[in-house]
Amino acid sequence: MKDGFIRVAAATPDIKVADCDYNADRIIELTKQAAEEDVSLVVFPELCITGYTCGDLFLQKVLLDGAKKALVKIARETADCDLLAFVGLPFEVDGKLYNCAAAINAGNIIGLVPKKNIPAYSEFYEARHFTPWRSGNIAVKDVDDGDNDERYTSYTCFGDMLFWCDEIPELVIGVEICEDLWIPEPPSGGLAAAGATIICNLSASDEVIGKGEYREQLVKSQSARCVCGYIYADAGMGESTQDLIFSGHNLIAENGAIVGESRKFTTGLTFGEIDLHRLIAERRKMNTFEANSSNSLKRNGYDSCEFSITPKNLDLKRRFPPMPFVPSNREDLDSRCEEILTMQATGLATRLRHIGCKTAVIGLSGGLDSTLALIVAVHAFDMLGLDRKGIVTVTMPCFGTTKRTKSNALSLAEAYGVTLKEVDITAAVRQHFADIGQSESVTDVTFENGQARERTQVIMDIANKIGGIVIGTGDLSELALGWATYNGDHMSMYGVNASVPKTLVRHLVSYESMNTENKQLSEVLADVLATPVSPELLPPTEGEISQKTEDIVGPYELHDFFLYYMVRCGFPPKKILRIAEQSFAGRFDRDTIKKWLTVFLKRFFSQQFKRSCLPDGPKVGSVTLSPRGDWRMPSDACVRLWLEDLE
Q1: Contact partners, residue 21, CB within 8 Å, separation at least 6
Q2: What is the band of 145 on the pLDDT scale with cuts at 50, 70, 90?
Q3: CATH number of the domain that 249 lies in?
Q4: What is the pLDDT of residues 287-345, one digit of tens each?
Q5: How far apart are CA 44 and CA 201, in angstroms?
Q6: Of 69, 73, 115, 116, which is the active-site residue?
Q7: For residue 313, is it within any domain?
Q8: What is this structure's pTM?
Q9: Among the options 20, 46, 273, 536, which is catalytic?
Q10: Which listed residue, 38, 120, 556, 640, has the most CB atoms within 10 A of its CB?
Q11: Are strands 84-93 and 39-43 parallel, antiparallel or unpaired?
Q12: Looking at residue 565, what DSSP letter applies?
């Protein structure tokens, strides 16, 4: 099981109502197809051996015996399939009929899980035929096709249970059946708390207008609540259409995200790849997620059934978005941008109101980050009903400033109607260089940082002079890389961009540009977006920016990808490299990705000291590096193990 991934499938066979032998053949066909696709776990719909819509035929012994024979046939003819399969059938125990999920592995029927919640409302009348299972476990012997094969006449576990795999200890499976998911407290909650990392739901959910969207939200929400994989296999073609329609709407989710979904009104297999390592990592950092404290076969009242499958090194079909911080859907992106800008502005407005401050100072360079900080400040002042003239923007030209960025800074201030000050720091920096013996001809780190610290001193002192606060402009990507001058642009009194990555900064500025009626503002924002990212600390070349950040530290698109999957998902470097190769295929080759991932790791570890003393700033996303919030890391941690993993 390379990198924690297993391939799973939800299967909807084309059945015939009450024709158990025909249905068994369709189930066998799909099971074999799943095995050929390296699937480790396949789930079929509720009562699929008989069909869900058999009605009072469920009370006929002929149908019940036929279902058992079909179950044994399925087990026997899929014995060579290296997977675990769950199929649905009616099963009688002690004179009561239960709606069950049968677990099949290596030719054996290893367990039967009965449905707990039996609906008897609206179009459902299961209670007419089936008994709800309350709790506990028993052993049943009556799984027999009449051939006295000892594999199918030996005792089989029946009741509440978890299925676990010795070869893949992270793979623990719980089962619920259709209605079990739709109640206030689904069984999957207890199963997950007891250790289940994947929940299988055998379902026969009829289709009505709007139900598909609700069903999808239900599966996503439950997988997120349980921090698990969730496989929902739905009944489809062949079920009786006397009163209902079944669409075969199969869903596979992982911790709140859909990783596999069928088109409605289709049959066959729906595939998905679930990352067990990510689920375990997510649970590991949630101290409120109930841990399974026992390694015994009895887990929190559930019986345990062991199954065996071979771990598979998959050629991944799952796709990872190259920009995980940025929604791919335009409508979702616009909504996300609006929400983030509002969150940033609310944080700043709350801080200003709390300290009774009506002025704010921003070092406005004409670059992306300072532009976003200005946008946020304008929104915050508008929220509070404050005069925008209280926003004091300061442009501080020096050795590396270009006409383009300076012009954009002036235009931004004019378009927003804020106060603009120009403080040329060249003379001050030269005096400082003379004081410390730094030659202006030596364009080293002292040459660069001397300018950055002078700029910070200027805006801090202006803020003191007018009774305002300095608004920080640095973003999350720069914090991850340590791409900031310590006690220079690293420092402020409130960092509004602190948890916004560079790839998202660009979209936030673009969103503001598209949603303003001010033509001048729209045009200058468009030019800011087209300007190369640069600290502008080195002299320009023929009037153009000579110091391009991404040429030095690497593409921010890659670094944001690395940051998300390392911090948010807990992926090791070799796994990040693997999925990055797939996500950036055709744009960056393996060697290029590995080069910049090495840079990221080294800088991420070596620059923690800058993050350990960050100013306050609002958390707006699931990844933040605040030392008071989500990320606590010693400044002298060693990167060696991560680099070794990458190699």
Answers
A1: 66, 69, 70, 73
A2: low
A3: 3.60.110.10
A4: 877 655 444 345 567 888 999 999 999 999 998 999 999 998 899 999 999 999 999 99
A5: 9
A6: 115
A7: no
A8: 0.89
A9: 46
A10: 556
A11: parallel
A12: I
Opening angle at CA 314, ends 310 and 316, nearest 5:
155
Residue 448: partners with Cβ closer than 8 Å, 6 or more residues away? 485, 535, 537, 538
Q: Does residue 516 lie in a domain region?
A: yes
48 is catalytic: no
Q: Which of 8-22, 144-158, 358-372, 441-455 has the lowest mean pLDDT?
A: 144-158
Give Cβ neighbours of residue 2 (< 8 Å, ≥ 6 apart).
313, 314
Kindly state the tokens that stand for 523: 């045009």
Residue 186's domain comprises 2-307
Strand pairing report for 108-114 and 303-307: unpaired
Q: How far apart are CA 503 and CA 382, in angstroms?
A: 26
Per the domain annotation, does 259 fall within a domain? Answer: yes
Annotation marks residue 178 as catalytic: yes
| 109 bridge partner residues | 104
Residue 315 belongs to a domain: no
**Model confidence band, residue 171 (pLDDT cutoffs 50, 70, 90):** very high
On whether the CB atoms of residues 597 and 576 are closer than 8 A, the answer is: yes
Instruction: For tokens 């125990």, name the residue.
Output: 93
Is 200 tagged catalytic?
Answer: no
Spell out the residues 6+ positions from residue 398 whose beta carbon is closer than 8 angstroms to its own: 424, 425, 426, 429, 451, 454, 455, 537
